[in-house]
Amino acid sequence: MVYRGKPSTACEPCRIRRLKCDRVRPFCTQCRNTSRVCAYRNTLDLLFQHENNTVIQKYASKENTPEPKFSTKPQWPVDCGQSLSSNSQFLTHAPEKSAINFFLLAYVEGMYLDYVPALYRAGSCPLSLVATLEAVALACLANEKCQPGLLSLARRKYGIALRATNEALQSVATAITDETLASVMLLAYFGAVSSDPSEARDSWSKHVNGALAIAALRPRELGQSAAGQALLDHVVSSVQVECISQRKAAPALLTTLYENFPGLTSAQSHFRALIERVLVLQTAIKKRSKTTNSLETVLELRSLDETALKLMGHMSLSHPHAAISFEKKKGDPNNRLRYYSSPSHRITQSWNSMRMLRMYINHTIYSLATQSLDSQATIPFQATILQAQMDEAAQAAVEMAMGICGSVPEFLQPTHLSGMDDSGGDGHTAWAHSLIWPLSSAVASPLLPEDLRQQLHSQQRCLETATNLRCIRQSASSSSFCTAIKEW
Predict the structure, then answer these.
(1) Contact indicator for 140, 149 with CB cutoff of 8 Å
(2) Which helix (H) or strand (E) is 226 found in, with range?
(3) Which of 373, 399, 196 is nearest to 294 (CA)?
(4) pLDDT, tens digit, for every residue of 119-156?
(5) Would you list the DSSP string of 155-202?
(6) For residue 408, is it within any domain?
(7) Which residue has the higher pLDDT, 3 or 133?
(8) Are 195 and 76 in contact (CB under 8 A)?
(9) Structure confidence at residue 97 (pLDDT)
(10) Could you identify which of 28, 138, 458, 484 might form a hypothetical disulfide with 479, taking C-beta atoms 3.0 to 4.6 angstroms apart as the criterion?
């Protein structure tokens, strides 16, 4: 027996960050306020530990019952990895492989990470990508299963992944590969799922900007493969989200990337051009004085919104989805809501991306018009125009939020979730994860009536049931409309 001294009774996240833990169970106040995974260690195991491997294995084989507070059913098929019915068994037998299988099934489709399975090949995949994927997968699984042991292991893997990725970046030959770029994008995601909101923002921004710098150095032939094209699409969309949330202009490296890879501008060119125009306008808005008359800027934004509305009209042909009549939803308390039926969550993602962009534009219109009217720097006829723009912006925001709310498919509704099996159904998890950001952004909008906001909260509870994520509503309630993505 080895005496290890008096251990700390604080939870693991507070010990790591050297914060004062109030030791409230089952979750301390610090972790509850920051949506961290809070858990306390077994004091007896820390006081005494037998050094004999035979005794350790014998003890582990007897301890097969997980704690009732954190027991949850597995959300993926049994044949994709080892069963998680026993926490001790799972932690003993290669949790990395089971976590990766879970991540590939539950997260890849819903988060535009299609390039990961193609790049991840056992035996031929570099250490940087293997360690990064293990870290991200373990962190996601730790959050969903509330297992602090997995989170500690994920952080250790993250350290290995950082060192391996930095080594790969030292050589031009390895720095520009698909695997290295994928590692950097996954490292950005690790910070979002394992850190508190303020740290997650900085970590995500740094890694995304680093990925853009790497992508701009890549030769054109690396963008020809399916994985290479998907990687570049992910980098570009992440950079645009970063610019919108930080209210800054698109970096010059993004223009360089467009020049090096013409295919980026041909795919979804109209949508990306619209985002570029929004970035230019929001940079000008950031520099202007609050007392400046904003009528001209408001009208420019209205022109962008009309362009987006036309694009949505064309999407009805390229991204078809059918509206479900109200008669089929008699039990729904909100009779104004229209539900949409789509053959793929990818189509729903495209529609919701346009809806979120229109909500952002109209939210900006409403904010600028309000500031201009409050400053009393407008003449009467301008005030009339601004008021009309405010009313139109509020109406458009409500319509887009209703579309997002109605995009939750029927099989994720409460009446269907109760009958789902342990696997969650084919594609159900991908659907659910693809809806987290749109619903969080819509709920955070200040232009919605209370009944619609309650309906959005109800849909978020459906996602909580489908994905076993406990921080969806906390993310929405603690985020402003323009920075909702930073909580993810």
Answers:
(1) no
(2) helix 226-246
(3) 373
(4) 887 557 888 999 999 998 888 888 777 777 788 888 88
(5) HHHHHHHHHHHHHHHTSHHHHTSHHHHHHHHHHHHHHHHHS-HHHHHH
(6) yes
(7) 133
(8) no
(9) 80
(10) 484
Task: Find out whether 220 and 257 touch, Cβ atoms under 8 Å.
Answer: no
Give yes or no: residues 384 and 443 share one domain.
yes
The residue assigned the tokens 């940079």 is: 283
Q: Could you give the CA distance from residue 134 to residue 224 in angstroms, rounded to a whole number?
A: 27
Distance of CA 2 to the CA centre of its chain: 44
Examine residue 470 and state whether it is found in any structural domain, yes or no. yes
290 token code pair: 């609050």
**Whether pTM exceeds 0.85:** no
pLDDT tens-place string over residues 417-428: 444 444 444 456
Q: Which token pair is 229?
A: 């094209």
Q: Is residue 349 domain-shared with residue 235, that is, in the same domain?
A: no
Residues 6+ apart with CB under 8 A from 461: 414, 473
Domain harbouring 43, CATH code:
4.10.240.10
DSSP state, 48?
E
Name the token pair of 154.
């994920």
Type of residue at 261: F
Listed in sequence order, the residues at least 6 apart from 102 whose beta carbon sits closer than 8 Å to its beta carbon are 75, 76, 80, 81, 137, 140, 141
